[in-house]
Amino acid sequence: MKPLHLIPDDVNVPFLKFRKIFYIVSLVMVLASVGLFFTKGLNFGIDFRGGILVEIKTDGPANIGALRDNLGSLGLGDVSIQEFGEPDDVLIQLQRQDGDEKAQMTALAQVTDALGDSVTIRRSELVGPKVGDELKEAGIYSVVISLLLIMVYIWFRFEWQFAVASVVALLHDVL
């Protein structure tokens, strides 16, 4: 019985022959991602932007589409609804409303009224943007520190040029 060979033994792919094409493709993709970053920005979740978080339990399996239509018609901005855990557990996230905490409480009351008596509200939280700012700052610090530690390790283990090249390659991969 012959073993299965998916790739023949005599494969010769001339990668360096196409390097200029790959350089151009890579440059276009990096420029496109940087351009999108500056035009569209980042899509931060409720943890970073602030907003309202409501966890509910429905009487039966949750009808996510009906909930989305019901809450979307309230005009409260971005509404994210997702099922988690059991089929009757639902997590609702609303964007931060313009105004102070009173505006957030009004929006929460609108959501509670729209849900009606057929659901049990397990918890509701108001997440402020200050928490989000702290998370962003901590995230940036942790990424910078980890990149520096990677550079230090590669520098001691090999040479400093390899350390710089590895961090540049990581940044390229992220972009």
UniProtKB/TrEMBL annotation:
Gene Ontology CC annotations of this record: plasma membrane
InterPro entries named in the record: SecD/SecF_arch_bac, SecD/SecF_bac, SecD/SecF_CS, SecD_SecF_C
Keywords: Cell membrane, Membrane, Protein transport, Translocation, Transmembrane, Transmembrane helix, Transport
Localization in the cell: Cell membrane
SUPFAM superfamilies attached to this UniProt entry: Multidrug efflux transporter AcrB transmembrane domain
Membrane topology: Multi-pass membrane protein
Superkingdom field: Bacteria
Annotated Protein export membrane protein SecD/SecF C-terminal domain residues: 111-175
Keyword Protein transport on entry: yes
Membrane spanning stretches: 21-39, 138-156
Subcellular location, principal: membrane
Protein's GO biological process: protein transport
PANTHER family per the UniProt record, alphabetical: PROTEIN TRANSLOCASE SUBUNIT SECF, PROTEIN-EXPORT MEMBRANE PROTEIN SEC
Stated name of the protein: Protein translocase subunit SecF
